[in-house]
Each structure stands twice: as structure tokens, then as C-alpha cells.
Amino acid sequence: MARRYKAMCRAGVLQVVANISPVALGESDWIVRVRTRPDAVLGTAQALARRPDVSWVSVNAGGSEIVCSVRSHTQEEREHLLLDRLPRSAAVLDLTLSVILRRFVGGKATDLVAEPGVLTPEQAEQLAVERQVPRYASIPVVESLDPGDYAMFRVLARDGRAPVGALARAAQVSEGRAGRRLDTLLGSGVVYLHVDLSTTALGYPIAAHLWLTVPPDRLESTCEAIAEHPEALFVAAISGRSNVLAWIACRSLDGLYQYVTERIGLLESVHSVEVSPVLQTLKQSGTHVDGDLLTVHK
Hints:
By secondary structure, the protein is an alpha+beta fold. It has helices at 2-10, 41-49, 75-88, 121-130, 147-158, 164-171, 175-188, 219-227, 253-264; strands spanning 14-20, 30-36, 54-60, 65-70, 92-103, 191-197, 206-213, 232-238, 244-250, 272-283, 288-290, 293-295. The protein has a domain at 103-130 and 205-279: Lrp/AsnC effector binding domain/regulation of amino acid metabolism (RAM) domain (Alpha-Beta Plaits, 2-Layer Sandwich). The longest helix is centred in the N-terminal third of the chain and has 14 residues, at 75-88.
């Protein structure tokens, strides 16, 4: 199993990375839609992807829209990007900001793109209970992380399975202290691990963002229903005219059509849906994308 995991990482199929929850720092996650001049969309997307506080960068729709997630560690960093740099850019024609109100993550093997039956029910259950990650609402707010925490995080952001010895050297502490601090950060939800996947390499080359409009009293149940779909890699309640965002991966355009008409279409609570196909993904949670494969920037 370990050899297979390392081979998939070297092949650019998957990468485990660590993230700091902005909620723990008293901040928030934002979804940003940037409409640019067609000749500037790729350069703008690449510039956003290079920022450590920007993730899930993709070029969507007709090739002139960028969708990304901004999770700055301070209010000043976030405001500088969203209220100063982007609006002042001559390439940016329009900017739409939505705050993530709640993420809906399942903690089960079926939340990832996979064929049914790959894991037995017992194996899926073991993965689900291995580490219970707190909901955002229960993550403690810390005033700040110390320099040693950030030093360990920079290592984990490149490799979420980095050995404790590497974390200890980065933070200049003993392995025992580094291990205990890591357990505290992970157990509280301040730091969480994410698996970035090349869905194209796994046979799911078609991705799209679905922007849904749902009545407030049906928001929770609708998000929970969509989160159970194996095609849904990300589901969140957000602010704005569209109050649900889902990131979907399918095997074909016909599969995407069937998902929208047969899965989403059966949800009576969904009043409207905008389908925004992903033309190119430049960055996932913490891993850059080169073509169809994942790359780690040192």
C-alpha cells in the first residue's frame, strides 16, 4: 500500500496537503469569481495560483472567468487582495465575492471520486472514524499561531505525510514536542489534511461548478443531499444570489448532463442552477496542476 501511494504521488495522481482553517484565526473562506479580458485570463489565473492564500484556481465558462478560493490568515491580507489589487487591475472586468457559510464534508470514502465497491463497508467505516474533524462551528479561535507552528505548516503544505522528524527540524524543537503539537492542531481542526486528486487521471476529465439557488429553510437538507453524491467533490452554502456551490466531476459531458437533469433536477428545493464548466484547473487545495497532473512547488 505504501509503495502504491508513493508511486501515485510521483505520477502526479494524488497529493496529501495540510491547510490552516481560517476560522481558527478568526477569518473566513471566500469564493471569488473574476471576469477578465479574454487575453488576460490565463496570466491573471497564474498570478492568483502563485499566492499561498489562494487555492482551487480554475478557468471556467467561455474562457474569461476565473473561480478561486481565498483563505487569507489576516484581514489585512484578504482586503489587500479583494478590495485593492484585483479591483485595480486593468484586466479585471467584474468581481463577485461570496463567503463560505458552511462546508458540507462527509468524511466517508464515497466523498472522493471512486467506483462503488472499491472499499468494503468496514474499510470505509474505519476511514471515517480514524479522525473526527470538528465542524467549522466548533473549531476553537486562536489569537495567532507561533512561528514554530507556521514552520511545521510550511512543510505539511508540501507533504501532508511528512515525518515528525522533518517537522521538528523545521520548527527547531524535539520530535516529541513536534508530534504533540501536531496532534493538538489536527485534533482541534486548526490544521486539517486534504487529498488533492487528479480527477482526469482517475477517469473523470469533466469538471464543473454548479451555482444553485435554494430557499433558506431547505439549505441544510439540500447541501447534505448533494454531499452524498459521489460526483460532488465540494459542496458549500455560500452568500450571494446563488447560495449553494458544488464542484462536480464526471466521466463525460453526457455524464454531466445526466447529473444535472437526473440528480440535481430531482431536488425540488433547487429553484435554479447555473452550470459553469471548468476549462483548466491551475491549482487545487495546495497543489498546482500541470496539464492533467499534480505538481508540488517547492
